[in-house]
């Protein structure tokens, strides 16, 4: 039997663990980079209650409100006066936590504040006083570098989100709403909120509850939509709430089988050594043959959220140097695990020669990151211009497998016809799809879809159900990419034959 305290420690959030380390190592001076000031306050309150033999007081200082205690006690003298705030700490009798907001400015601009902090360091250590500075900026003066313990407060993990959710549920019920508090439901809601700050999560919950006063599984679509809007605001990373099932992908049986096998391994990753846990795959191939579609299907097959990194945005310069922007994005993704991460058009940017050094570093970073990233991220990278990718990227060991998605073979095209008819509410049984085999040789999946759409449109315009003739005549009008861009398609295929595993079982008959 596990004792209740060890269970508690196992459920402890990542953020709380950071505070535990601060307290246990007795570090008097901590600097936390975060935009979530409120969250720091709550964590400190929690720490003050739980990490000491008897709870200790928490004081909060800000430029405008001065020093305030939990019970509403104030020390007016410290309003607008960072020096007085430090004096307050020095004179306070007994252990306490002091949360200093907006303190990066005084720290940078006032030498006497820096001096005084160094003076009282030893005193705080002996008295069990902890000063915690929170700021959205990392600005630590050199002379305090050794005394200050610095960390960045990343996004809340699932355990912190669930604790937050519990508190929110109590508030919802108290205000007359209802909550489905089945643990499985709460777990799913928690997962939907993961990837957001607590403020954003609060906002998403409020929006989801706007139309009904009930929080339950029905709220999930609204929560996912809110999350999509919130995450996508940043531009570089998108949350893809698409839900494409694997049976929507026609053909590509080899890749699908591989994925289904890997799903089991990935799901039991916590019990497995990092070597065995699937890291990810690289999918390359002809445009319009289902690379993006397959990646979306992986996420729903693994039952995980999907985040897409837009390499065009990374290289756009809107987020600073591409290398740094990319590293930031990767770091942010570590915090949303477990998830599928999709690097779309990963070869992007390699084509422009002026920043070759930058790209080299970016790829070097990526490959190292692939080796070191958390087990909870499964990477799916897609590429068209595979010939541009550096050789070490394709080499075994980086990705678990490199798949080549070729033009669909005969049976695959028929299956794709079936899928797209069905998706549009038309029963494929009523057609003789075999008749399309010859006519559609060399087509991409996207072209098959386009053919279905134009056949259905033609029938609809004539107010009648679609028939074989509609499909045949629509097919006659399609000019396939493999014809117009024969050389490029041939080049891609040739290149990939030697370097990748075909995602489909048999050769495309030329
Ligand atoms: N194998 C397939 N099964 C079902 N539909 C497909 C298949 N391949 C392509 N399609 C249809 O074509 C559309 C475009 O395919 P997708 O976006 O996956 O191509 P892609 O390989 O990512 O192309 P690109 O290189 O241009 O990004 C899909 O949304 C889907 O509707
Ligand atoms: Mg694509």
What does this structure look like?
With 510 residues, the protein is an alpha/beta fold. The chain contains 21 helices and 16 strands. Strand 3 and strand 4 form a beta hairpin. Helix 2 (14-24) packs across helix 3 (37-50) and helix 7 crosses helix 8 (183-193). The termini are far apart. Adenosine-5'-triphosphate (ATP) is lined by residues 249-252, 287-293, 384, 408, 416, 419, 445-446, 449.
Concise account of the structure shown:
By secondary structure, this protein is α/β, with parallel strands linked by helices. Helices cover 47% and strands 14% of the residues.
Helix content: 40-55%
Q: Can you tell me the CATH architecture of the largest domain?
A: 3-Layer(aba) Sandwich
For the record, give the distance between the C-alpha atoms at the N and C termini, rounded to a whole number: 65 Å
- Distinct small-molecule ligands in the complex: adenosine-5'-triphosphate, magnesium ion
Q: How would you state the average pLDDT, rounded? A: 88
Output the number of helix runs: 21
CATH topology of the largest domain: Rossmann fold
Count of DSSP strands: 16
Strand content: 5-15%
Name the CATH homologous superfamily of the largest domain: P-loop containing nucleotide triphosphate hydrolases
| Sequence stretches where pLDDT stays below 50 over 5 or more residues | 1-9
Main structural class: alpha/beta
Count up the domains.
4
Measured on Cα atoms, how large is the radius of gyration? 28 Å
Q: Specify the overall morphology.
A: elongated
Q: How would you sum up the major sheet?
A: 7 strands, mixed
CATH class of the largest domain: Alpha Beta
| Major β-sheet strand ordering | 4-3-2-5-6-1-7
